[in-house]
Amino acid sequence: MLNRKRKGLLLSLILFAAILIVMQPIQDSITKAAVGDGSWSSPYSVSQGINAQNNSSKTVQGYVVGQPTATNTVITSGFPNDYALALAESPSETSLAKMIYVQIPSSFRSSFGLKSNPSLMGKKMKVTGTLTAYFSHPGLKDGTAFELDGGGATDPEPGPGGYYDAANGKTGESLKSVLHNIIDDHTEISYSNVWEALRETDEDPANPNNVILLYTGRSQGKFTNGSGVNDWNREHVWAKSHGDFGTAMGAGTDLHHLRPTDASVNSSRGNLDFDNGGSQHSEALGNYYDADSWEPRDTVKGDVARMLFYMAVRYEGDSGEVDLELNNAVNNGSAPYHGKMSVLLEWHKEDPVDETERRRNEMIYSDYQHNRNPFIDHPEWASAIWE
């Protein structure tokens, strides 16, 4: 009798093990099917984000579990600011190793920072950004989109409340016209005052005594400006001869397209339109040019595109100003056109908005011109107008 019971128990164990073996591939297929590809519609899980710290731009979804304030510290109350949050796959997660730290850019802090919105704790959220270390911990930085699961606050309005309200629901020429009216009539500064402004807007975050030069990426002393070969000077990204506005107050001194640039590199760029191709510049490596076009280094291609988008919307020929427009050509010369629009739209997508642009946009708005570049705040509007 006892042997029969033992045999029965042994058979039950064997049957249970067989079921587990059969079920495992099914479970694996279910798990694999649930894995996201990092897109907005199929976001990474937090664990995928932690394991893919490769500087790629992906969307991660998880639950808000606190605010990281140091590598080994995530607080769940008494939040000191709106600068960061931590996501996990469970709203009750306490293991730091299972969290991804999310940097919150300034334009999203009022709606997604925990000091201003402590009720976000435990909520499910999607964030698009760059998968790279933050606080020396697996992170997601330079976010371009934030959204709560099931509605909630989505893509908060950058800048002052209501700044872009009139643009809601608009596309094409209608959107372009409304944005022009929003950013028009900015506070103008003189060309001589541009020097001091650029020392603030383009300051090197790693060295407050320096500025970062647009095309070379070189960090150089703030007061080494001038006309010498290795000095930096004021580059008009929308070439000032394209519309012949020179350095007059308005288009000629608009900080949204003026950047510090090595003087000799600026001379090489001249009034060339923007396009792909050419020979690499010997001093500004990663930049290419030929007789009719200039291709900037990869990390500022989107910056260049968004500066030109701004100029084409800001200056529409009213109030005695020049009417600037983008076209799909090069060799525009003194005509009030700049190209090549199809390439600029590609660069805009390939090099998304980063924190440097957002910080610069905020400074120009708050400290100088009191207007904004809409295509930094709302990158999607470039396609809505020109595609």
Task: Describe this protein's structure.
By secondary structure, this protein is an alpha+beta fold. Helices cover 31% and strands 21% of the residues. It has 11 helices and 18 strands. A 5-stranded mixed barrel has the order 1-3-4-6-5. Strands 13-16-15-14 form a 4-stranded mixed sheet, with no helix packed on it. A hairpin with a 6-residue loop joins strand 9 (207-212) and strand 10 (219-221). The longest helix has 32 residues, at 2-33. The radius of gyration is 26 Å and the shape is globular. It starts with a helix and ends with a helix. Residues 19-34 and 151-156 have low confidence and may be disordered.
Give a brief outline of the structure:
The chain has 387 residues and is α+β, with helices and mostly antiparallel strands. It contains 11 helices and 18 strands.
